[in-house]
Structures are given as C-alpha cells and as structure tokens.
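Support case: nicotinamide-adenine-dinucleotide complex. Customer-provided input:
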Amino acid sequence: MTRPNEMRALAKTEPAEGLDMIRAPVPEISHDDVLIRINKTGICGTDIHIWNWDDWAQRTVPVPLITGHEFAGEIVEMGRDVEGLSLGQRCSGEGHLIGKTSRQSRAGKFHLDPETRGIGVNEQGAFAEYLRLPAFNVVPLPDSIDDEIGAILDPLGNAVHTALSFDLVGEDVLVTGAGPIGIMAAAVARHVGARHVVITDVNADRLALAARVADVVPVNVAEEDLAAVIPSLKMKQGFDVGLEMSGNQAALDQMVETMTMGGRIALLGIPPGKSPVDWSRIVFKAITIKGVYGREIFETWYKMIAMLENGLDVRAVITHRFSVDDFRRGFDEMRAGHTGKVVLDWT
Ligand code: NAD
Ligand code: ZN
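Agent response - structure generated as follows:
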C-alpha cells in the first residue's frame, strides 16, 4: 500500500475524563509484526473505565495513549519474518501481548504469562485507522465471520473462556450479570448443551436483550426471588455451574446460595475492590471456584470461531452501530448502561 503518514485515532491525551480524536503517525512495524487497517471496533467496559478516568484507569493507563482493543480489519503490511499470513487477509487478534520467557509461556500456557500487556490499556491500541500487532497475535477471519462480529470476538472470547471452564452438557447453569459478556456466555452455555440457563440482572433492558439473544430464563433479582425459579424449572437441587459476570458482591452471594453441593463457579466479573465472602458456605457446599482472565491463547479463539461456524449466533448483542465520527454518542449510550455491544465503523 502507499503508506499514509498520519491516521485518525481515539486517544487519552490528558489525565482527565473523555477521549479525543487525534492525528497520530501511522505505526512503524518491526520484522515480526503486521500493520492492520482497522474496519470496525467494539467499545468495551474497559474503555468506559478509561473514558471515566476512574482509580483503576489512573493507576494503569499511561498518557498519552491510543485506546481500544476490540477490532477487526485487514493486513496491509507485513514484517520480513512474518509467515503464514498474507496481505489483504481479514483478521481480528488477541489484544494481550505476551512475553516468551516465563515458565507459563514456555509451557505453552500463553494466557497465564505474568508479563502480559494489553493493547489499548498499556500499549497503543486499536481505536485508530491502523494498528501494529505482532503477527503471533493475529487471528485470521473466515469469510463467514464479518467485521462487526470480528470486532466483538475479544469479549465473546471472555464469554467462551468462562463458559467452557466446566463441562456444561446437561447441566443447569446460572449466569449472574446480563452485560454483553454475560449474555454471550449464556448463549454459549445453551449452544454447548446446558439444560437450563438462567441469567440474572437488576437492569430490565439487559434481561430483555438476553432473552432476544439466546434461549435463556431471565430473572430480575431486584424484583423476583431467584430461589423460587429452581422449583419452577423442576430442578431438584441448585445450579450445577455458575458463571459470575457482574462483579457484584450480592450476585456472588446469591450464586453461592443457589448452587448445588459440589457446584463449580467461574468468576470473570471484577469487583470494584475487596469484598466480604462467606467462605464457610463455600467450604460446606464443596464448591470449586476458578478465576478467569482473558482468553486461552489460542484455544478459545479456535473454539469460538468453530462455534460461530456451526450456528452460535450472538449478533443481536450488538445494539448500536456508529461511524467513528460519532464516537461520543457511542460512549454516551454505553455509559447510560442500556446498550449491548456498541460497534464503531472506521471505514
Ligand atoms: P457490564 O458492566 O456491562 O455488565 C455487568 C452487569 O451486571 C450489568 O448489566 C449490571 O446491571 C449487572 N448487575 C449488577 N448487579 C447485579 C446483581 N446483583 N445481580 C446480577 N447482575 C447484576 O460488564 P461486561 O462488559 O458484560 O463484563 C462483565 C464483567 O466481566 C465485568 O465485571 C467486567 O469488568 C469483567 N471482565 C473481566 C474480564 C477478565 O478478563 N476477567 C474481561 C472482560 C470483562
Ligand atoms: Zn474488551
């Protein structure tokens, strides 16, 4: 391609609320990188934290920084050592940049590398016309996965990683938190053969969205008694598997309370700080708890693309689409808390 000198990008330019559209140099790539022209990006809860400039963002994000980590685009430049990819290849990619020297990486457990750095959080991100990415991180997209689905594979990957933490076949599954990731996790649980999938929230719009995306039982725990749902579904005991997707203390308490003996819980939701846990309840119920971070590199990507190719349909979780010129509207809608995924178009 004839390489432009400059590109548009959404960046944190000063330590304060908001993001600005800036002109930035098109990134130079190194011998094992690719340059990706970005077509679509997803706005993540993480981007909202960065927009709001909360305590976590202030501690974590360097200024200035181009933000964003959920993207789809196509390869327009390749470093001289890149193999197995080609110019014009449509792709998404893993936004966690890993080291190669830790014990975990050397064992092939890339998602557990303690040196992980995130694009759009610690390193220059994907809210831009061009993104530099190590070729290792590129995930080619089949023709059947278009760019807007490609742009939400990162959060779908969080959902898939969490949902596939435990065997769900024939199991009764509770998902707490009907944000975009909880809704997609519920859809995955249904797709892989769970018996009942119950999803809770306190936000009626999001529960309605969950019911549009997947065949799930929505429960508004601000108004309904979750324990009463168990006999109404003819479940004998409690839930076999819990997927915590809210980060809310009350939701985790309620999950522990409604689990069966020997139940298994995967925690993706991030509580805002320390929160009290009734550990004796967990011990006496012999519950297994697993923390989940990111996506398994690249097994989660393989599984989610395979599931999308054989009928998993999460498109309805995208509720808002904007040109990047209207990024402020996209962020405003997200911050109001009634959206599913919001996708920005850079083309
Ligand atoms: P989100 O904030 O959009 O959704 C969370 C939902 O939980 C909201 O709809 C909220 O109304 C609901 N909620 C609040 N209180 C509740 C309660 N008592 N019971 C049930 N639901 C309740 O978040 P998201 O983007 O879907 O992400 C889900 C969670 O996963 C967040 O906590 C996010 O920070 C976290 N996350 C973790 C990772 C990771 O790698 N571990 C990656 C991405 C996101
Ligand atoms: Zn994200």
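The chain has two domains: 6-152+314-345, 157-291.

Case will auto-close in a few days if no follow-up is received.
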